[in-house]
Design brief:
The chain is 47% helix and 3% strand. The chain is mainly α. The longest helix is centred in the first third of the chain and has 18 residues, at 124-141. Mean pLDDT is 47; it is low at 1-32, 165-375 and 381-495. The structure holds a DNA duplex. Keywords: Activator, DNA-binding, Nucleus, Repeat, Transcription, Transcription regulation. Pfam families: Myb_DNA-binding.
DNA sequence: AATCATAGCAACCGCTGAAAC
DNA sequence: AGTTTCAGCGGTTGCTATGAT
């Protein structure tokens, strides 16, 4: 649309800030008026269109100078690119386009311009807005973003990429970059991983730091997908946010926790026959703790502005250089001082009680211990109502088998996991089907308590929640990001 | 009918890399 | 080699329309 509201009279005093020439050139052709800001009028559109049709695109500051428009070149370019270009496709995205966008986003992250290049007639701005809106919607609904076919696709590609020693950024930015050495992962993280191996089953830890990253392409996804490619200064600057992402998924720093999350979740799901849609809120007060997934693309990728519910997960600010052996240590390491949020993530599912206690006894963690204690307390308070966790003999292999069986069996027909705050772990996505598909109503509300967990299903309209019918037409299982399959959630698949 | 919340969209802003000087 | 200019990208903001209460 072309807004021609009264706000047109917003005026820039200096032209575009980052367009010195525009500013210094004195604004419009008359040199008398300051540059306008705000919505374009149809008259301005006509002038710009006429100018560009005559002189062609480019040299936008010249447009501003010679067309008589009181707009900076940058603004002209934007207007032309987003609204006046003759090849623009107007109107809502078609389902095909939407699917394509999702695919592209799964591959590229927030590379709007690149995505736009693959969607003829669509602009980066359009795609970006669409995506952000979509994220918001799904976020609100507690749904994840990516449909399963895309997750599978990403999984396949990821596996292929592991089989090929050479790779191209163009083809697969996120995971491949993580394969590269450009990314400065503190080695200590993986030293600690080794330490942790005495605490956790080897089978769960048989993942090197590198492979962990390889399997978690989304761990630093999106904003960080180009991390390795970016300017060193930017890298330095973004390292903080990167580590936010890292720590937003503490599992990357604490792989074992992720693995236990997944494993325990899987076990629970299988043993109880319902989804592992655990509720972080049992440990935290976060109203919306969805998608704190290792490598949660939804989280890191979507524009998680500070006003967004996701922002809490982004608040964890651990300066990149502050990771040290002591800080990144495993369970109970001295003063990791994670934010409460990260601890929430960390602690949602202690592997076993004994393990937890062992861990604590060997390393006094202070805050961590406190949280564990709280968790324990909560757990105990719930124990009376649900004491048993049958089928505890599940081994990782069993889990994998069952998981993969479910993968095929369910045929991806499952709706999104509306309640998994951890972002639709493998367990949740594979088993949520059980509880959902049996329901005769669209609304679910139930709460199941098991030792150490509170599996709570919040009310979600399963039909409308799927993007209010605006998204993929058919209900299907979704993930917050394909890397939920590729990540530590899924590394078992490669055992 | 009024108010509020949300969605959708357009535009702006800051930054970056490449090209030109 | 260093600086300036330009074009483009991605994140954010602000406005309007619409729906819910």
């Amino acid at each position: 649309m072309s807004i021609t509201s009264g706000s047109d009279d917003k005026i820039m005093s200096m032209g575009c800030i980052d367009s010195p020439s525009a500013a210094s050139s004195g604004g419009n052709v008359t040199g008398s008026g300051p540059l306008k800001k705000g919505p374009w009028t149809s008259a301005e559109d006509a002038i710009l269109a006429a100018y560009v049709n005559k002189h062609g695109e480019g040299n936008w500051n010249a447009v501003q100078k010679h067309s008589g428009l009181s707009r900076c070149g940058k603004s002209c370019r934007l207007r032309w690119a987003n609204h006046l270009r003759p090849d623009l496709k107007k109107g809502a995205f078609t389902p095909e386009e939407e699917h394509h966008i999702i695919e592209l986003h799964a591959k590229m992250g927030n590379k709007w311009a690149r995505m736009a290049a693959e969607l003829p007639g669509r602009t980066d701005n359009e795609i970006k807005n669409y995506w952000n809106t979509r994220i918001k919607r799904r976020q609100r609904a507690g749904l994840s973003i990516y449909p399963p076919d895309i997750c599978l696709q990403a999984l396949n590609e990821d596996q292929q990429s592991q089989n090929v020693s050479t790779f191209s950024y163009e083809d697969r930015p996120s995971p491949d970059l993580l394969l590269s050495n450009h990314f400065e992962i503190p080695s200590v993280e993986f030293k600690n991983l080794e330490l942790n191996q005495q605490l956790y089953p080897q089978s769960l830890l048989d993942v090197s730091g590198n492979s962990l990253l390889v399997h978690s392409p989304g761990s630093f996804h999106s904003n960080n997908s180009s991390f390795a490619m970016m300017h060193p200064a930017k890298r330095l600057r973004e390292s903080e946010s990167l580590h936010t992402g890292l720590s937003g998924s503490l599992g990357d720093l604490f792989p074992a926790f992720n693995q236990y999350q997944d494993d325990a979740c899987e076990k629970l799901a299988h043993s109880l026959g319902f989804s592992c849609a655990y509720d972080h809120n049992i440990h935290a007060n976060h109203p919306s703790t969805s998608c704190l997934l290792p490598g949660s693309h939804a989280l890191l990728n979507g524009n998680s502005s500070s006003s967004e519910p996701f922002s809490w997960a982004m608040k964890l600010e651990l300066p990149s250089l502050q990771y040290s052996d002591t800080q990144v240590g495993s369970c109970g390491s001295p003063s990791p001082l994670p934010s409460r949020e990260s601890v929430d993530t960390l602690i949602w599912s202690p592997p076993t009680e004994q393990m937890q206690l062992d861990c604590l006894s060997s390393r006094n963690s202070g805050l961590l211990e406190a949280v564990l204690y709280e968790s324990q307390t909560l757990k105990n308070s719930k124990n009376s109502s649900c004491q048993q966790t049958p089928n505890a003999s599940l081994t990782p292999d069993n889990v994998v088998d069952t998981l993969t069986q479910n993968l095929h069996r369910t045929g991806w027909e499952v709706y999104g996991d509306p309640i998994s705050p951890l972002g639709y772990s493998a367990a949740s996505v594979f088993s949520v089907h059980e509880s959902i598909s049996r329901s005769s109503t669209n609304e679910h509300q139930s709460a199941v308590t098991v030792p150490g967990f509170k599996i709570k299903q919040e009310p979600v309209d399963w039909v409308s929640a799927w993007d209010n019918g605006k998204d993929e037409v058919q209900p299907q299982m979704i993930f917050s990001r394909p890397d939920c399959l590729l990540g530590s959630n899924c590394y078992n698949l490669n055992l």
